Known about the structure:
It is a single chain. By secondary structure, the protein is an alpha+beta fold. The protein has one domain (2-112): STM4215-like (2-Layer Sandwich), CATH 3.30.2000. It has two helices and five strands. It has a five-stranded mixed β-sheet with strand order 1-2-3-5-4. The mean pLDDT is 93.
Amino acid sequence: MIQEQVFTALSGVVGGRVFPNVAPNNVQKPYVVYMRVASQPENTLADGIPVENTRMQIDCFDTTYAAVTTLAENIKAALRASAITSVLLLEQDQFEPDAQLHRVILDFSLWHY
């Protein structure tokens, strides 16, 4: 599954603090949350094996803006270094006032079998 591949690719960046859909309460910072936005099979004529295109949102969280933007760059580098074929579609900065955390949202198109 692509979710397992994403977890493996990213877990070394933040010491395993990579979570599907939501992070646990009081987790140590920095951390990453990933979620599948959409998944669609693409049929191919060459070999008959469908290729899957999955949009994956990866949210980076840390206590300062400088730290979270560095984390986002490290996440992008980790995906580039992995076997996952990825295209960055969107990058957005946010601040979560209730948690007092800076957030960078990365939206990727991932191609996989």
